[in-house]
């Protein structure tokens, strides 16, 4: 019999450069001095979330479903990646229960966006926003041109 609960974990990192947009958790970051270098929209938080969803059921990682060599993935809205991962999770008979996200970024301060990021990620997973915990850290200047996101997700069997 399959387990009633499973844990998923995902990470992502992108190099940052001037003159690019920065999007995190589906929310544009205003006044970001640097933005993500990526094939898609470079949303490290949603990439970590999608990988967490997939890893909880040993479904691989987002690169298998959305290769960074595919022309159709260029500038892709990462909400599409999360939607696909969620569809695969549901297809295996599970649903997300709660998410914990940590974003490491030196600048700008993301605290003012915490609620918007939690709300958008919850919306993508059809969860109440109270089920998405969002934490921010700096790299203490060790990686100023770098964004990193880490996410855990608890998955519950749909028919326990
Ligand atoms: N981009 C960021 C990074 C951090 N914060 C907030 O600052 C606090 C201190 O960060 P440390 O890395 O020095 O521990 C952290 O707890 C966050 O609340 C932020 O808002 N945006
Ligand atoms: C999302 C994909 C595909 O567009 O590309 P990137 O935006 O570069 O992101 P990354 O997390 O490096 O790899 C996953 C890729 O499959």
UniProtKB/TrEMBL annotation:
<dbReference type="InterPro" id="IPR020555">
    <property type="entry name" value="MECDP_synthase_CS"/>
</dbReference>
<feature type="binding site">
    <location>
        <begin position="39"/>
        <end position="40"/>
    </location>
    <ligand>
        <name>4-CDP-2-C-methyl-D-erythritol 2-phosphate</name>
    </ligand>
</feature>
<comment type="subunit">
    <text>Homotrimer.</text>
</comment>
<feature type="site" description="Transition state stabilizer">
    <location>
        <position position="138"/>
    </location>
</feature>
<feature type="binding site">
    <location>
        <position position="12"/>
    </location>
    <ligand>
        <name>a divalent metal cation</name>
    </ligand>
</feature>
<dbReference type="GO" id="GO:0008685">
    <property type="term" value="F:2-C-methyl-D-erythritol 2,4-cyclodiphosphate synthase activity"/>
</dbReference>
<protein>
    <recommendedName>
        <fullName>2-C-methyl-D-erythritol 2,4-cyclodiphosphate synthase</fullName>
        <ecNumber>4.6.1.12</ecNumber>
    </recommendedName>
</protein>
<comment type="similarity">
    <text>Belongs to the IspF family.</text>
</comment>
<dbReference type="GO" id="GO:0016114">
    <property type="term" value="P:terpenoid biosynthetic process"/>
</dbReference>
<comment type="pathway">
    <text>Isoprenoid biosynthesis; isopentenyl diphosphate biosynthesis via DXP pathway; isopentenyl diphosphate from 1-deoxy-D-xylulose 5-phosphate: step 4/6.</text>
</comment>
<feature type="binding site">
    <location>
        <begin position="61"/>
        <end position="63"/>
    </location>
    <ligand>
        <name>4-CDP-2-C-methyl-D-erythritol 2-phosphate</name>
    </ligand>
</feature>
<feature type="site" description="Transition state stabilizer">
    <location>
        <position position="39"/>
    </location>
</feature>
<feature type="binding site">
    <location>
        <position position="14"/>
    </location>
    <ligand>
        <name>a divalent metal cation</name>
    </ligand>
</feature>
<dbReference type="InterPro" id="IPR003526">
    <property type="entry name" value="MECDP_synthase"/>
</dbReference>
<feature type="binding site">
    <location>
        <position position="47"/>
    </location>
    <ligand>
        <name>a divalent metal cation</name>
    </ligand>
</feature>
<keyword id="KW-0414">Isoprene biosynthesis</keyword>
<keyword id="KW-0456">Lyase</keyword>
<dbReference type="InterPro" id="IPR036571">
    <property type="entry name" value="MECDP_synthase_sf"/>
</dbReference>
<dbReference type="GO" id="GO:0019288">
    <property type="term" value="P:isopentenyl diphosphate biosynthetic process, methylerythritol 4-phosphate pathway"/>
</dbReference>
<feature type="binding site">
    <location>
        <begin position="12"/>
        <end position="14"/>
    </location>
    <ligand>
        <name>4-CDP-2-C-methyl-D-erythritol 2-phosphate</name>
    </ligand>
</feature>
<dbReference type="Pfam" id="PF02542">
    <property type="entry name" value="YgbB"/>
</dbReference>
<comment type="function">
    <text>Involved in the biosynthesis of isopentenyl diphosphate (IPP) and dimethylallyl diphosphate (DMAPP), two major building blocks of isoprenoid compounds. Catalyzes the conversion of 4-diphosphocytidyl-2-C-methyl-D-erythritol 2-phosphate (CDP-ME2P) to 2-C-methyl-D-erythritol 2,4-cyclodiphosphate (ME-CPP) with a corresponding release of cytidine 5-monophosphate (CMP).</text>
</comment>
<keyword id="KW-0479">Metal-binding</keyword>
<dbReference type="GO" id="GO:0046872">
    <property type="term" value="F:metal ion binding"/>
</dbReference>
<feature type="domain" description="2-C-methyl-D-erythritol 2,4-cyclodiphosphate synthase">
    <location>
        <begin position="6"/>
        <end position="155"/>
    </location>
</feature>
């Amino acid at each position: 019999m399959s387990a009633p609960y499973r844990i998923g974990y995902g990470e992502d990192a992108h190099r940052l450069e001037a003159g690019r947009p920065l999007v995190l958790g589906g929310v544009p970051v205003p006044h970001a001095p640097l933005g993500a270098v990526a094939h898609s929209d470079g949303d490290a938080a949603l990439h970590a979330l999608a990988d967490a969803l997939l890893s909880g059921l040993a479904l691989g990682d987002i690169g298998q479903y959305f290769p960074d060599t595919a022309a159709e993935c260029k500038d892709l809205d990462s909400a599409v990646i999360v939607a696909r991962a969620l569809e695969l999770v549901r297809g295996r008979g599970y649903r997300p229960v709660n998410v914990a996200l940590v974003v490491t970024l030196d600048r700008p301060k993301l605290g003012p966006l915490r609620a918007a990021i939690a709300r958008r990620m919850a919306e993508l997973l059809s969860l109440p926003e109270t089920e998405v915990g969002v934490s921010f850290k700096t790299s203490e200047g060790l990686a100023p041109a770098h964004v990193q996101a880490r996410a855990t997700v608890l998955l519950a069997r749909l028919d326990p």
